[in-house]
């Protein structure tokens, strides 16, 4: 069988620990036999980040800007333990943070839904994607403990030196606390565009919710920017695609989400997205079944798994013990990236291969063959727990048939 040709290379960002092991297995077992894979390879493994003084992370993000599509393996974000373990000269920053800052992107997280893994909300039949605004609010705040008898004010000094003051609170009879938050029109607009582009790409409805009834300037600004960009740039495209955008109060959104059957994108402010993405991930069943894609406002895509490097499994693997690590989210990062590359380069065969790779993966699990994390959750009657490698070989059995 002739291998599927590619035109433009994918940016390939390799990573750490167990996911690095899985990365190679996926390529060898499921991709290289079918695709004449073209990638521009960047080794974001911690050792190489140390060796290049983290320049490799920046280079990989720049390459993503150039080519438009990347696939990333999970990477270690160093902490004090890792500095010792890897003999680091610096506590290098999170690669995901660096890449996100360079691409100015929004992260979309979507669960992979399979028969046998029932969401805790039984009405949820289709995945719910959470889009989290990843700038500002409480994540870039200034806060103070305030002593009784103090007066706290907001003071803004404009570029000509004029001050505008507003009272926050006069602290009488008790100590208290204050917090200063900000956001940027530019960042909110980027977030809105990334959300609307992603909705068009997925042909799914998108909701945005905040607390504009209480926060009449701050949250209301988010609502206005979303509405303005939608009306001016996306209204017609949405009508053509048969999808809708609507704004609602965050309380209403939460109630609707629980009553829904899924199949839409929920755009959240930074804090709401932080909290709600954990709720949605847990309710859908497993972190190992959660995909993640970073989308820039100008349509650059970086695909990855939402989970980390699965360190505990890696130490078992190093000792030569059998592991049963779930490769589904990493596999879907590859299929997502290859599909997007195929769409951009007009390669229907590559798009078709990506679809079949996902079908084969889901079929394997629905046939009852799965890794330990899923076996513990699945309600299927006949299920077999398999090791990391066997799972991929089982997927390949089904993929080979689909590709015939
Ligand atoms: P983790 O790698 O997501 O793993 C936490 C636990 O979740 C695992 O020990 C495992 O539970 C289970 N798990 C996660 N993914 C799994 C999979 N694919 N298959 C089976 N089980 C899975 O999180 P962590 O242990 O907190 O972090 C490890 C490293 O990953 C850290 O250095 C962190 O910086 C990094 N990290 C990277 C990213 C990223 O690159 N996007 C994201 C998060 C964390 P059991 O051990 O109980 O089986
Ligand atoms: Mg969180």
SSE diagram, text form:
Layout: E1 10-14, H1 17-31, E2 39-43, H2 46-51, H3 55-67, E3 69-72, H4 80-85, H5 95-103, E4 106-111, E5 128-132, E6 142-146, E7 151-157, E8 163-170, E9 176-180, H6 185-202, E10 206-210, H7 218-241, E11 245-249, H8 250-259, E12 264-268, H9 270-284, E13 290-295, E14 301-305, H10 311-318, H11 328-344, H12 348-366, E15 369-370, H13 372-375, E16 384-385, H14 388-403
Parallel strand pairs: 1-2, 1-3, 3-14, 5-12, 10-11, 10-12, 15-16
Antiparallel strand pairs: 4-5, 4-13, 6-9, 7-8, 13-14
Helix pairs in contact: 1-10, 1-14, 3-5, 6-7, 11-12, 12-14
Bound molecules: NADP nicotinamide-adenine-dinucleotide phosphate (NAP) and magnesium ion.
Defining traits:
single chain; 404 residues; alpha/beta; Isopropylmalate Dehydrogenase; 3 domains; ten-stranded mixed sheet; two-stranded antiparallel sheet; 14 helices; 16 strands; globular; binds NADP nicotinamide-adenine-dinucleotide phosphate; binds magnesium ion
Task: Please summarize what this structure is.
With 404 residues, this protein is an alpha/beta fold. The chain has 14 helices and 16 strands.
Describe the structure.
It is a single chain. With about 400 residues, the chain is α/β, with parallel strands linked by helices. The protein has three domains: about 1-105 and about 300-404, 3-Layer(aba) Sandwich (Isopropylmalate Dehydrogenase); about 120-135 and about 185-285, no CATH class; about 140-180, no CATH class. It has helices at about 15-30, 45-50, 55-65, 80-85, 95-105, 185-200, 220-240, 250-260, 270-285, 310-320, 330-345, 350-365, 370-375, 390-404; strands at about 10-15, 40-45, 70, 105-110, 130, 140-145, 150-155, 165-170, 175-180, 205-210, 245-250, 265-270, 290-295, 300-305, 370, 385. The strands form four sheets. Strands 2-1-3-14-13-4-5-12-10-11 form a ten-stranded mixed β-sheet, with helices on both faces. The chain has a two-stranded antiparallel sheet with strand order 6-9. The protein has a two-stranded antiparallel sheet with strand order 7-8. Helix 1 crosses helix 10 and helix 3 runs parallel beside helix 5. The mean pLDDT is about 95. Magnesium ion binds near residues 274 and 278.
């Amino acid at each position: 069988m002739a291998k599927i040709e590619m035109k433009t290379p994918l940016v390939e960002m390799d990573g750490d620990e167990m996911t690095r092991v899985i990365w190679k297995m996926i390529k060898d077992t499921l991709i290289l036999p079918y695709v004449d894979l073209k990638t521009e390879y960047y080794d974001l493994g911690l050792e190489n980040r140390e060796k290049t003084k983290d320049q490799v992370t920046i280079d990989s993000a720049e390459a993503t800007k150039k080519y438009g599509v990347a696939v990333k393996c999970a990477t270690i974000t160093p902490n004090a333990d890792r500095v010792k373990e890897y003999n680091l000269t610096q506590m290098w920053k999170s690669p995901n943070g660096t890449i996100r800052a360079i691409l100015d992107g929004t992260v979309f997280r979507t669960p992979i839904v399979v028969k046998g893994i029932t969401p805790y909300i039984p009405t949820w039949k289709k995945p719910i994607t959470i889009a989290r605004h990843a700038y500002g609010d409480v994540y870039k705040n200034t806060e103070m403990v305030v002593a009784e008898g103090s007066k706290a004010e907001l003071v803004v000094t404009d570029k000509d030196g004029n001050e505008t003051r507003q009272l926050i609170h006069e602290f009488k009879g008790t100590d208290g606390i204050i917090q200063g938050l900000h956001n940027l029109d530019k960042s909110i607009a980027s977030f809105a565009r990334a959300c609307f582009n992603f909705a068009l790409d997925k042909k799914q409805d998108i909701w945005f919710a905040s607390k504009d009834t209480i926060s009449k300037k701050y949250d209301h600004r988010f609502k206005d920017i979303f509405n303005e960009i939608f009306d001016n740039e996306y209204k017609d495209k949405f009508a053509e695609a048969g999808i809708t955008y609507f704004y609602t109060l965050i309380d209403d959104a939460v109630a609707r989400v629980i009553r829904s059957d899924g199949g839409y994108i929920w755009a959240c402010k930074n804090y709401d997205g932080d909290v709600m993405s954990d709720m949605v991930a847990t309710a859908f069943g497993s972190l190992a079944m959660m995909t993640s894609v970073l989308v820039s406002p100008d349509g650059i895509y970086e695909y990855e798994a939402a989970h980390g490097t699965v360190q505990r499994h890696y130490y078992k693997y190093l000792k030569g013990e059998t592991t049963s690590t779930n490769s589904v989210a990493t596999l879907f990062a590859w299929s997502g990236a290859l599909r997007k590359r195929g769409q951009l380069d007009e390669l229907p065969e590559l798009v078709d291969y990506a679809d079949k790779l996902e079908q084969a993966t889901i079929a394997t699990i629905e046939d009852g063959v799965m890794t330990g994390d899923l076996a513990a959750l699945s309600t299927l009657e006949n299920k077999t727990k398999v090791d990391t490698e066997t799972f991929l070989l089982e997927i390949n059995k089904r993929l080979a048939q689909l590709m015939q």
